Task: inverse folding
């Protein structure tokens, strides 16, 4: 029985990377009087590294003008990351981001049907708090049964840790929930935790493979394509009735038939 929707945050709830983190990283470089800037194309490549500090560490490793002393480099990474998060929160508080189409509608629908909502993100908790407070107001903690962030799950996606912890906090099995993700790393993490995944493509991950997804869409108000093993029409948008239908098919027909649901099973390409 479907009991919860587990949402990724960056790229899924909102286009936080393009409109928030990238802008804030570049502002942080400037505030530190560093000549470094990331272009949109640089950032698309860097997003293969999940986690803002990890992304900085990866980038600095290739910069001849970054500190060579490890302690100094780590101190710079920590300082840049803290500055980036302060600036990110300011962008969010000023309303510079906003939810993606259909997110609020599907959340309301799920809550009205007494499903639980949860967040499974690798971002820092202060970033999640800023976005959720801005979009849902001061009562936002009452909307979510679990909010698992980067500090809680240090092993970054595609490691399943953040999803496993989320299921643990919800006291649910993977059969009881659906994950909603935008990136292949996120899809892989959720699938490795045993969850069926709806992929809602974001700007930076639009061409990521979505092999193993339960269904894929450009956003929740757009038509969705279910995995070809889930027989059914292409709905005009993603609503709870359709998610319930796919979820039931996923577990009732797909698994007992002996098909593998590993995320690289080519038979599961949507
Ligand atoms: C999100 C991330 C995060 C954000 C930045 O990935 O990788 O690192 O880019 O946040 P996902 P921090 O959507 O797969 O959870 O700087 O706080 O890490
Ligand atoms: Mg994401």
Result:
């Amino acid at each position: 029985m479907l009991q919860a929707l587990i949402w990724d945050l960056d790229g899924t709830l909102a286009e936080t990377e393009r409109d928030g983190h990238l802008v804030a990283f570049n502002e942080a470089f400037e505030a530190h009087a560093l000549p470094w800037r990331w272009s949109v194309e640089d950032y698309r490549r860097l997003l293969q590294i999940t986690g803002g500090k990890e992304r900085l560490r990866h980038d600095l490793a290739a910069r001849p003008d970054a500190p060579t002393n490890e302690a100094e480099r780590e101190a710079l990474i920590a300082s840049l990351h803290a500055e980036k998060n302060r600036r990110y929160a300011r962008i969010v508080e000023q309303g510079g981001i906003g939810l993606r189409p259909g997110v609020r509608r599907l959340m309301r629908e799920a809550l009205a049907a007494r499903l639980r909502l949860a967040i499974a993100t690798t971002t820092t908790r202060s970033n999640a708090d800023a976005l959720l407070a801005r979009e849902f107001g001061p009562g936002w903690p009452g909307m979510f049964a679990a909010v698992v962030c980067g500090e809680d799950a240090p092993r970054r996606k595609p490691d399943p840790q953040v999803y496993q912890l989320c299921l643990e906090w919800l006291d649910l099995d993977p059969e009881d929930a659906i994950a909603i993700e935008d990136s292949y790393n996120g899809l892989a993490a959720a699938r490795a935790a045993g969850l069926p995944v709806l992929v809602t493509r974001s700007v930076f991950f639009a061409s990521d493979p979505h092999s193993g997804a339960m269904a894929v869409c450009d956003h929740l108000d757009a038509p969705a394509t279910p995995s070809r093993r889930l027989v059914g029409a292409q709905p005009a948008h993603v609503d709870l009735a359709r998610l319930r239908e796919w979820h039931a098919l996923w577990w009732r027909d797909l698994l007992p038939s002996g098909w593998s649901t590993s995320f690289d099973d080519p038979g599961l390409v949507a």
Observations:
- The pocket of magnesium ion (ligand 2) is lined by residues 8, 10-12, 182-183, 186 (CB under 6 Å).
